[in-house]
Amino acid sequence: MPFDAFPRVLLSEPGGSLAQYPLDPSSSGSQSSVDLIFQPIRKDFKTFPSSFELRLHVSLGPGRLTLIPSVKNTDNNSLSFIFGLRNYLSVSDISEVRVEGLETLDYMDCLLQRERFTEQADANTFDGEVHHVYLSTPPKIAIIDHGKKGTFVLHKESLQDTVLWNPSDKVSKALPDFGMEDYKIMMLVDSTNFEKPMMF
C-alpha cells in the first residue's frame, strides 16, 4: 500500500448512513462520541488491494479529543499495512512552536530519501521545511505554542512512530489546497507505525 494512501472519505456500513450514528452524549452530558466506518468498495481496490474494515471511535469532551482506531481483516489473505492518524494542528506561528519528547531519538528524513539520523536538539523547532519520521517515540509528546501561550499534549498507544511535517513557504506554493501563508499557522504531528507494518 502506498506510504501516503489513506481513507479520505469515511463510508458507513452497507445500507446505512452516518446520520444513523449520531453523537452519543455520555451520562455526564459533557462528552460525546461517534463511530465512523470505512469499507473499501470496488473502485478503491487499486489503492487498497485487500478487503478490510476500519472503524474510528471519536470522543470529544472538555479539553480532550480521543481517537481510537480499529482494523478488521475481512479478506481471505493476511493483511499487512502501515497506519497513521494525521493530526493537523492550528498554531499561532510555526516559528513560535517547539516540540518536546523527541530528543535523542532516531528519525528518517523524508527530504533526504529517508536517510537515518539521531535528533541532537533539546526540542524541535521549525525554520524551514521539515518532514521527519521519528522511530519508537514515547507515549506523550508536547507541542508548545509560545504565541498562544498554550501546550497541546498528544498521548498515543500502540502506534510507535511520530511524523513531524511543515511544508515551508516554497513547498506550500506548489500545494493546491494551501494558501500562500498557510504553512505559518499549521503543523502535522502524525501518530503512525511507519517502521514496522502491522500484520493480521
TrEMBL record:
Gene Ontology BP terms: carbohydrate metabolic process
InterPro entries noted in UniProt: Aldose_1/G6P_1-epimerase, Gal_mutarotase_sf_dom, GH-type_carb-bd
GO MF terms, alphabetically ordered: carbohydrate binding; glucose-6-phosphate 1-epimerase activity
GO cellular component: cytoplasm
Domain of life assignment: Eukaryota
Any one Pfam family match given in the protein's UniProt record, by short name: Aldose_epim
Coiled-coil intervals: none
Protein name as annotated: Uncharacterized protein
UniProt organism field: Solanum verrucosum
